[in-house]
Amino acid sequence: MSAKNLDLGNFAQDVLLGLSAEPKSLPSKYFYDAKGDKLFQQIMDMPEYYLTRKEFEILENQHAKILANILDFNRPFNLVELGAGDGLKTKILLRYLVEKGVSFEYFPIDFSGSVLVELKESLRQEMPDLKVSAIEDTYRGSLLKRQWANGNPTLILFLGGNIGNFPLEEAHDVLDHLRLGTERGDEVLLGFDLKKNPQTILDAYHDHAGITKEFNINLLRRMNRELGANFDLDQFMHWPSYNPVDGECRSHLVSMKAQNVFIESLNQSFKFDAFEPIFTEISKKYSISEIKKLAKRSGFKIKEAFADSEDYFADVLWERK
Question: Which ranges carry the Histidine-specific methyltransferase SAM-dependent domain (predicted)?
């Protein structure tokens, strides 16, 4: 890598590394610019995308049981959320805590600054007395810095099945950081998309309206806008696949012809063969036995699991050992 490339922003550097690799890949965290945030909110409303509805059902119906453990401490606590997004589901918990008069501070963490601005404003309007300290950072970066550490117990929310956005080895690394970001007795509520009918899973990432396709294609559009790339968006297709053995649902953008793409910020062209894929995203599904192994390996014990009525999704409460 040249000295010039060393001075590039993280986005450009990650694109350079990803498109220079074999096979090509792009980090899914860059889906979330302002347009990507809006598209993902549309995805969550799709009839095929069951994940949000099922977790919403869990939190709506079982929030008192979920929060009972942390409230038993009978003292102020920190509520930290990794990947807060628009906070739609979390507001169920926040409203309950505010109504109960519980003393706590909410730390929403997200890689997208635009999402955090919107979340803070909506919370200011809905719950003006709620103390909110937003943190724009990655999961691992925030867990290492622990800006919320103040001697109070902590409940970390890692909802939405976001742990599934990492291959297993990388998930282990994220959970190792989660252990570093907690003290003994702290709790973590993790959302897991459970293994189920493979067609149900695949449909969630291949909706009839094409919103998930647009969400993936928007990554190329962002590169065109921010990095001066010349991707022809019509010459790439979105291709999801699901492997019921390892539970991995993977998304690719596939070049429909042999072509070269020039990226001005990198001053470099990248060659694509006909039907060559770019790996963009993984969403891993777990079985209950796999979740138990994951907790034990990561230094946590399972306190309780909360599932929806169809056992599509589970929010599992872990305690740091």
Answer: 11-319
Residues 6+ apart with CB under 8 A from 5: 12, 13, 16, 266
Residue in 251, 160, 158, 247 with CA at minimum distance from that of residue 196: 247
Residue 277, domain extent: 3-31+206-284
What is the rounded average pLDDT for all residues in the chain? Answer: 94
* Mean pLDDT in residue range 278-282: 97
Residue 201 lies in a domain: no
Tokens at 65, concatenated: 């049981």
Taking residues 32-36, report their average pLDDT: 90
DSSP string for residues in 100-146 = TT--EEEEEEES-HHHHHHHHHHHHHH-TT-EE--EES-HHHHHHH-
Nearest alpha carbon to residue 106 among 96, 306, 64: 96
User: Contact at 8 Å (CB) between 286 and 190?
Assistant: no
Q: Is 225 among the domain residues?
A: yes
As given in the structure block, the two tokens for residue 208 are 């009839």
- Is the same domain home to 27 and 56? no
Confirm whether 128 is domain-assigned: yes
DSSP state of 317: E
Over its C-alpha atoms, the chain yields an Rg (Å, rounded) of 20
The identity of residue 164, as a single letter, is: G
CA dihedral 170, 179, 192, 196 (to 10 degrees): 60
Above 80 in pLDDT, residue 65?
A: yes
Query: Which residues, listed in sequence order, are joined to residue 192 by a DSSP beta bridge?
Result: 314
Kindly state the tokens that stand for 276. Answer: 């060559």
Mean pLDDT within 46-50:
95
Peptide bond into 198 cis (omega under 30): no
What is d(CA 273, CA 256) in angstroms, rounded to the nearest whole number? 9
Q: Check whether residue 24 and residue 130 sit in a common domain.
A: no
Same domain for 224 and 304, yes or no, is: no
Q: How many domains does the chain have?
A: 2
> Angle 232-237-241 (CA atoms, 0-180°, nearest 5)?
150
Q: Please name the residues in contact with 169: beta carbons below 8 A apart, sequence gap of 6 or more.
A: none
